[in-house]
C-alpha cells in the first residue's frame, strides 16, 4: 500500500520566526477592536447577566419540573424509572401510597441534585407518564450552599414551563 507523506507545516524561515503570524493575528484583533469602538451595534456578545438570552427554545433542556394532573395534584406515580435511567444517579425518590384513589403511589420525596445532574434528559425520556420535564428554560441556578442546589418536590412542582412564564 502506498504511503503518502504529508510535509510538516512550518518549515520555512517565515514560519519558524513566529513573528509574522503573531503580527497577523494582532492585526485582525486590532481591526475588530477599532471597528467595534466606532460602532457597537455589530458586537455579537450580550451584557450577561444584565441582558439574558432571548433565543431559548421550548426544546432547550433547562432545570426540571414535575408536572400536574388536571386536579393540580402531582402526576408522578413514583415508579423510579427516571432515577433508574439517570446516569448521574442524582434523583432521589421516596414513594408513598396514594390515598385519593387517583393512582396507587406518589412521591413523598422527590429530589434532584443539580450539581450532579448532567442535563442529559434521560429522566424525561424514561418517564412513562410525562411527569417530569426540562422545559422551564431555566439555564442558571444560583445558590450559596451545596444543599440549596438539591431541588425538592415542592420546588419542582412550582417550576413552570417556558411557555407558562411568557
Ligand atoms: S437530566 Fe440526566 S443527569 Fe439530570 S436528572 Fe435527568 S437523567 Fe439524571
Ligand atoms: S417522574 Fe416519571 S419516571 Fe420518575 S418516578 Fe415519577 S412517574 Fe416514574
DSSP summary, beta strand count:
5
* Low-pLDDT stretches: none
At the first level of CATH, the class of the largest domain is: Alpha Beta
> What's the overall average pLDDT, rounded?
92
Describe the protein in words.
This protein has a 3-stranded antiparallel beta sheet with strand order 2-3-5. It has 166 residues and is an alpha+beta fold. It contains 6 helices and 5 strands. It is elongated, with a radius of gyration of 26 Å. Helices cover 27% and strands 13% of the residues. The protein has 2 domains: 10-45; 65-165, Alpha-Beta Plaits. Bound molecules: iron/sulfur cluster (SF4) (2 copies).
Could you give a quick summary of the protein structure above?
This protein has helices spanning 13-17, 19-38, 81-85, 122-126, 153-158, 162-165; strands spanning 65-66, 91-97, 105-113, 132-133, 150-151. By secondary structure, it is α+β, with helices and mostly antiparallel strands.
Secondary structure elements and their pairing?
Layout: H1 13-17, H2 19-38, E1 65-66, H3 81-85, E2 91-97, E3 105-113, H4 122-126, E4 132-133, E5 150-151, H5 153-158, H6 162-165
Antiparallel strand pairs: 1-4, 2-3, 3-5
This protein binds iron/sulfur cluster (SF4) (2 copies).
Amino acid at each position: 500500500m502506498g504511503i503518502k507523506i504529508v510535509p510538516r507545516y512550518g518549515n520555512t524561515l517565515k514560519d519558524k520566526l513566529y513573528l509574522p503570524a503573531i503580527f497577523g493575528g494582532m492585526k485582525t484583533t486590532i481591526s475588530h477592536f477599532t471597528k467595534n469602538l466606532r460602532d457597537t451595534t455589530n458586537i455579537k456578545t450580550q451584557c450577561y447577566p444584565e441582558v439574558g438570552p432571548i433565543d431559548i427554545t421550548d426544546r432547550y433542556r433547562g432545570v426540571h419540573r414535575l408536572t400536574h394532573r388536571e386536579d393540580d395534584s402531582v402526576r408522578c406515580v413514583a415508579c423510579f424509572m427516571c432515577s433508574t435511567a439517570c446516569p448521574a444517579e442524582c434523583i432521589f425518590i421516596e414513594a408513598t401510597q396514594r390515598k385519593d384513589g387517583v393512582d396507587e403511589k406518589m412521591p413523598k420525596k422527590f429530589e434532584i441534585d443539580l450539581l450532579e445532574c448532567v442535563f442529559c434528559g434521560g429522566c424525561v425520556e424514561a418517564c412513562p407518564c410525562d411527569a417530569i420535564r426540562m422545559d422551564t428554560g431555566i439555564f442558571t441556578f444560583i445558590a450559596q450552599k451545596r444543599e440549596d442546589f438539591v431541588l425538592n418536590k415542592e420546588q419542582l412542582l412550582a417550576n413552570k414551563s417556558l411557555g407558562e412564564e411568557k
